[in-house]
Specification:
Layout lengths: L12 E5 L16 H15 L3 E5 L19 H8 L3 E4 L5 H9 L5 E4 L7 H4 L2 H8 L4 E4 L23 E3 L1 H14 L6 E5 L8 H7 L5 E4 L4 H7 L3 E2 L9 H13 L3 E3 L3 E5 L8 E5 L2 E2 L4 E5 L1 H13 L2 E5 L12 H15 L3 E4 L3 H8 L8 E2 L3 H8 L5 H7 L1
Parallel strand pairs: 1-2, 1-5, 2-4, 3-4, 5-6, 7-8, 7-15, 8-10, 9-13, 15-16, 16-17
Antiparallel strand pairs: 11-12, 11-14
Helix pairs in contact: 1-2, 8-9, 10-11
The protein binds adenosine monophosphate.
Length: 396
């Protein structure tokens, strides 16, 4: 994999697709600079290798045309502070003026282009627009993993105009390398924990992952569809009756592939979907009518302790329960702790694709696992085994 670390740019303009889709407050100040911060090593590597970074990104969902609240000019101060370099801002991402600005920039300076999505052609993957964008660089780098699953002009189509002159940024490279450590080079036992609300949104992941696993832990609301498929009583728990057969098939595949499946043994039930609800623990397949399982119970956690501490590779996607409610977050929190313990003992752990990332952040445990993915939807599609246009465009 060629990254920005491997290239001497020799004073050329390096057009980088970054993900600066950051939240702004009413005063148009950046309230969470994580994504900008994450890109700084890529920018530094380009500067060190004598390149002039020309950065392009989207911000929010403009209707098509300029909107002050969604201008990338709002992030320039933050970028200057974090990079320690002078940043020149181009008021459009295409056009003669912009190209001239990029050509007048000198080594050590950075150019930031205006929001790509002020032009509707960006999201449509329009080829002429991609060609116009390409005039702003001599080299193309993609470092926006969060949009790698979209075939937009700046994330994929543009790569056609940089044959032999393209590379991955360091955020993107880290995402690809880390997920490969799980999907392709996982040291056994490999364990995946898949949770969250719905089976329907996780089928492709389960289908792609199962044959690669030793253990599959199923938690969250989706577990109840599996438990019902096996004949259990799940009371008023979340269920997708259209997916009972699918759940059954996934269990059959797991058995064929010698994958051990762990469904919750017990659950913490509530008499309504509320943090204030009455609580009662029961076997997960013996839930009374009128009660719903909102978290996994203590027996389940005991069993998971054994499995997780023996695992050498762990992937976590989706919470074990309704972790947003303090009375039902314990299962998710304990699983996070077990993953942290396994990691401390030498396991490789990746948290990615969805609400388990939000959960681990809520618990302040991001640094206790090996890697937390930044790309929600993109990571989901990667785990589903799909080829991401943003990655393909660079590798080809
Ligand atoms: P997902 O985006 O599919 O990963 O689903 C995450 C959501 O699933 C979170 O908002 C959780 O509150 C929700 N969830 C997890 N467990 C349950 C459950 N047992 N019943 C209902 N919702 C759940």
């Amino acid at each position: 994999m060629t990254t920005v670390n491997d290239i001497d740019f020799k004073g050329q303009r390096v057009l980088v697709r970054v993900d600066f889709n950051v939240p702004l407050n009413k005063n148009l100040e950046v309230t969470d600079d994580t994504r900008i911060r994450a890109t700084i090593p890529t920018i530094r590597a380009i500067l060190k290798n004598r390149g002039i970074p020309v950065l392009m990104s989207h911000l929010g969902r403009p209707k098509g045309g300029y909107e002050k609240e969604l201008s990338l000019e709002n992030i320039v101060d933050t970028l200057e502070k974090l990079s320690g370099q002078t940043v020149f801002f181009a008021t459009d991402c295409i056009g003669k003026g912009t190209e001239e600005l990029t050509r007048s920039a000198k080594t050590g300076e950075i150019v930031m282009l205006e929001n790509l999505r002020f032009h509707t052609e960006e999201s449509k993957g329009n080829r002429e627009f991609a060609e116009k964008l390409s005039k702003n660089g001599d080299f193309y780098v993609n470092d926006a993993f969060g949009t790698a699953h979209r075939a937009h002009a700046s994330t994929a189509i543009i790569a056609d105009f940089f044959k032999g002159k393209k590379a991955f940024g360091l955020v993107m490279a880290a995402e690809i390398e880390n997920v490969s450590k799980v999907l392709h080079q996982g040291k056994p036992p490999v364990t995946a924990i898949v949770g969250g609300a719905k089976v329907s949104s996780k089928i492709s992941i389960l289908e792609n992952l199962t044959p690669r696993l030793d253990n599959l832990i199923i938690g969250g609301g989706m577990a109840f569809t599996f438990i019902k498929a096996k004949g259990g009583n799940i009371g008023s728990s979340l269920v997708e009756d259209d997916y009972l057969e699918t759940a059954q098939k996934i269990l059959e595949t797991a058995e064929k592939e010698n994958v051990k499946v762990f469904l919750p043994q017990d659950s913490v039930n509530a008499d309504s979907f509320s943090d204030e609800a009455e609580r009662k623990i029961s076997r997960a397949d013996h839930i009374e009518e009128g009660w719903m399982g909102l978290d996994v119970g203590p027996q389940t956690l005991n069993e998971l302790e054994e499995v997780l501490l023996e695992s050498k590779t762990i992937l976590w996607n989706g919470p074990m329960g309704v972790f947003e409610f303090s009375n039902f977050e314990r299962g998710t929190r304990e699983v996070a702790k077990l993953i942290a313990r396994a990691t401390e003992q030498g396991a490789f752990s990746l948290v990615g694709g969805g609400d388990s990332v939000a959960a681990i952040k809520k618990f302040g445990m991001e640094n206790e696992v090996s890697y937390v993915s930044t790309g929600g939807g993109a990571m989901l599609e990667y785990l589903e085994g799909k080829e991401l246009p943003g990655i393909k465009a660079i590798s080809q």
